[in-house]
TrEMBL record:
PROSITE patterns linked: ARF, RAB, RAS, RHO
Protein's UniProt keywords contain Nucleotide-binding: yes
Name used for this protein in its record: RAB GTPase-like
Key words, A-Z: Cell membrane, GTP-binding, Lipoprotein, Membrane, Nucleotide-binding, Prenylation, Protein transport, Transport
Amino acid sequence: MGSSSGQGGSSNYDVSFKILLIGDSAVGKSSLLLTFISNSLLQDTSPTIGVDFKIKLLTVGGKKLKLTVWDTAGQERFRTLTSSYYRGAQGIILVYDVTKRETFTNLSDVWAKEVDLFSTNQNCVKMLVGNKVDIESERAVSREEGISLANEHGCLFLECSAKTRENVEQCFKELALKIMEVPSLMEEGSTIVKRNVLKQKPEYQRPSGGCCS
């Protein structure tokens, strides 16, 4: 009974997208993700080991979206895991730290090449994000340089701060809106939802109430 109330289950959203966060270690990928997922201001996070992902439901452009955001370790020793991360991703956020020049140059030298190598979606939407704008006094990469690199690689561009929350939600929303403009990605995202709904067995219903973790 009551399955039409839409509690729990996969039918609560219209589209499901897989988003990746990539970039050097310590540029703030995990902080961006945690700031986006939670509503509280962040404490420092410890380095991600291998891979971690979080799910966020939000409404963008009149559609209910389920974003599965994969946070990847920036450290070299975890690089072997990467090709499987990229499989089926509709959006990729390339993060650098505006106070550390090297994290910016590595986007071209390392990360953009990796995206070309491993990304399975030709139309995958990419976004360049400069994090830590709250430390303006230590800025080592100008906004103009960021915009120019984004144009060069065909990426969207935003600067943000995981600490002050500035533009964090905007990153994911703008990326999602752009993905929704690409018919093949939209189709993929909708197919996943349909498949999940078919998989559900109506005769087994957990008591509703409480939050699904």
